[in-house]
Every structure is written in C-alpha cells, then in structure tokens.
C-alpha cells in the first residue's frame, strides 16, 4: 500500500494531504509558510503523517504545488495549483463545472472540462485588493485578529463599500470609513462584499453558471462565504476542508503519476517477453 503526499506551498500557509493507493485521505497538515520552504513543508508533512499514523519515511511519492512548488527539494513532481485545484474540486463535486480559489496571494476563477481539467481561468494576481492578503492588511490596520473577522462580518448592520481595485487606494477608503466612525464589522463586511463582487466578475469571464466550488484559505471565513452566496447567481459549494483542496489535488495527481511509473517496468517486461 503506497502513501502519496500532496504539498501545497502557498503564500500564506503550506498544506499537506496524504492519500493511500485507493485515493483515500489518510491525513492533513498545515503550517504557516516561511522563507525556508523545505522546513515548513516538513512541518506540514509531519502533522499529516501524525494524523495518518505513519512516519514521514513511509511516504512513497511527493507532489508539490503552489507558489513554492519548485523550491521543495524532496518533491518527486511539481504540478500547477490551477491543475490541482480543478482536479480535486471535480472529485469532491463532480457536477459543478466551476471553481473559485481564493487564497492569500490571489483569486482564481476556473471553468472545467470533463474529468476536472482546466478549460479557462482568470486571475487577479497583479493586485492584492482581490485576495485574502488584502483582508490581512485590513486586519492589521484595524487591529483585529484575522481569525475573528469571519464571524465579525456577519454582525454588520451597515456594510461600507470598498470600490477601489487597488490595494493602496482601498486602504485609503478604509481610513476614511474609520475617521467617519464606521464600525469594524461594517468595514470588514464591506471588504468581503468587495471581494465577492470582483470574484463574480472573474467567474463571468469564464462563463459562470449554475454552481461553483469555493476553495482556498479565505473560505474559512463565514462572512466571506455569506457575501459570495448573496452576490453570486448560482450555488456556492463548500468542501469540508477548503484550504486543503489544492494539496488534495496534488496528492490525487501524484498518485496517478506514481501508479503509472510503478507499472511501467512490468509493462516493459511483458513487451520484451512478447518479442
């Protein structure tokens, strides 16, 4: 029985998912991303191994993805996070043809082909105002914990719109809201609604209809999910572990590659004997 690890080295956190030969998830791990990608990946892997009840030496194959995928020296293969997120979202929700991946660095809207392959995508990675990193900057300015804003957003009574598509100018709007005495909850809710509106624009560019699978670390904020469900014109489907979906996809694709590689010598032997 093989153990395959998918490691997603994202801008905010490094996530690991371990699957067995049947594709069953054995364990998950997460660690805050630091400059030493190998060290942070090992922490994430060790946490997933502990949950799976195995040692790190029991891992047979590692597929890396995310921002730091090329920097992981222990990898056997690297795969783009677009490909990984699309594949895992399809496995979790086979009937949905769209994926919205909102992480710390950027937000991506993806349309899928049959089998969970990427058909088209749009990303906002040129500006932090459309990503989870923008919410972190708001939290630092407002002096609130980013882990608290999901619930805080739901208590807003008068959401304050943030219209700028530039992170710097958006921060100026937030300063104006604070000077006008607006509550933290109303400002946070306005930020969530702003992100939802921009995400919908990206989804429409890839032909969005019916339903979308919402993945990424920002999905753990209840207020963000609520804002998307109010803004979007279709169903918003939430995986049980949204932050780990891309790592899950890396593990799934890594398993496919490992299985093919393991079968290759046997196939070659059969071919040789038949000649």
What's this model, at a glance?
The chain is an alpha/beta fold.
Structural class: alpha/beta
Number of strands: 10
CATH class of the largest domain: Alpha Beta
Task: Name the poorly predicted regions.
Answer: 269-275
Order of helices and strands: EEEHEEHEEEHHHHEHEH
| CATH homology superfamily of the largest domain | ATPase, nucleotide binding domain
How many separate domains? 2
Task: Please identify, by name, the CATH architecture of the largest domain.
Answer: 2-Layer Sandwich
Binned strand content: 15-25%
Report on this model:
The protein has 275 residues and is α/β, with parallel strands linked by helices. 44% of the residues lie in helices and 20% in strands. The strands form two sheets. It has a five-stranded mixed beta sheet with strand order 3-2-1-4-5. It has a five-stranded mixed beta sheet with strand order 8-7-6-9-10. Helix 2 (81-92) crosses helix 8 (245-274) and helix 6 packs across helix 7. It is globular and about 70 Å long. Residues 269-275 have low confidence and may be disordered.
Write the layout of secondary structure elements.
Layout: E1 3-9, E2 13-20, E3 25-32, H1 37-52, E4 61-65, E5 77-78, H2 81-92, E6 98-102, E7 107-112, E8 118-123, H3 132-142, H4 149-154, H5 167-179, H6 184-205, E9 211-215, H7 222-231, E10 235-237, H8 245-274
Parallel strand pairs: 1-4, 4-5, 6-9, 9-10
Antiparallel strand pairs: 1-2, 2-3, 6-7, 7-8
């Amino acid at each position: 029985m093989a153990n395959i690890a998918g490691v997603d080295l994202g801008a905010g956190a490094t996530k690991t998912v371990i699957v067995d030969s049947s594709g069953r998830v054995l364990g998950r791990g997460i660690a805050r991303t630091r400059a030493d990608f190998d060290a942070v990946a090992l922490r994430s892997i060790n946490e997933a191994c502990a949950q799976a009840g195995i040692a790190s030496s029991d891992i047979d194959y590692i597929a890396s993805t995310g921002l730091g995928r090329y920097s992981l020296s222990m990898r056997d293969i690297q795969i783009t996070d677009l490909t990984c997120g699309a594949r895992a979202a399809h496995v979790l929700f086979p009937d949905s043809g769209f994926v919205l991946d909102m992480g710390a660095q950027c937000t991506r809207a993806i349309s899928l082909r049959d089998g969970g392959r990427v058909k088209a995508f749009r990303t906002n990675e040129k500006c932090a105002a459309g990503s989870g990193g923008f919410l972190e900057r708001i939290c630092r300015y407002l002096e609130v914990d980013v882990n608290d804003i999901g619930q805080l957003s739901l208590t807003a009574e008068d959401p304050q719109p943030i219209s700028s598509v530039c992170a710097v100018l958006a921060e100026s709007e937030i300063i104006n809201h604070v000077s006008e005495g607006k509550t933290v909850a109303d400002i946070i809710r306005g930020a969530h609604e702003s992100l939802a509106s921009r995400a919908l624009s990206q989804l429409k560019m890839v032909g969005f209809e019916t339903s979308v699978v919402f993945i990424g670390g920002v999905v753990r904020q209840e207020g963000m999910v609520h804002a998307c469900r109010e803004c979007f014109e279709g169903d918003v489907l939430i995986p049980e572990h949204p932050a780990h979906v891309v790592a899950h996809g890396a593990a799934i694709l890594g398993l496919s590659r490992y299985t093919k590689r393991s079968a290759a010598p046997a196939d070659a032997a059969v071919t040789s004997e038949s000649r």
